[in-house]
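Tutorial, part two.
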Amino acid sequence: MKQQTAVVIGATGLTGSHLVQQLLADDAFNAVRILVRKPVALQDPKLRVELVDFNNYEDYKIKLGSGDCIFCCIGTTNSQVKGDEIAYRKIDFDIPVNAARFGKEAGFQQFAIITAATANSKSRIFYNRLKGEVEEVIATFQYQSFHIFRPSFIMGKRTEQRLGEKIFRVIFQTVAKLLPAAWRPIDAAAIATAMINATKKGRPGMNLYYYKEMLPK
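Running the prediction step on this input gives:
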């Protein structure tokens, strides 16, 4: 199998950081490029760090470059944008959609993204609707393989502590086995592994992955 070049957006987040570490350790990938807003203290012979202004489309397109797979783990929270839906959309919609657009133009064959178990473009709830719209727009670019990962609650140690998530973590750990499979919490590292495995298999068309599909095989 030909070694691949991967680009990661959202590389400093919970799932993205696991994804980068796993890609660097995987012999199927000979180059890993991460697009970040600020410098990161991470070095590896396979790694290239690109500082990018996501609002500068020319800069964004150049830094994205060319390769085989784009992994998008970008995401914000309502508290981070102080309830500003426009700011929320610029991060959770504009950044992934532009990555998909530029990537398609540059010849990337696969696009993998984390959205949400509740993604639905017809939903009255802003977050669910936004995630659904992202999926639908990226699907129109017709990548050879489009992988959509729809976790419910993502578990793991975050650098930023969120009170709401602490509460949910306690609740989920107590009742997780009683929940329908699609709503069960899953570890960020498991999602990262599932994303890599999906691109290595390269199943054509649009592929959806819920809790069961993301569990370690």
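Residues 72 and 113 are 5 Å apart (CA to CA). In part three we will examine how such features are distributed along the chain.
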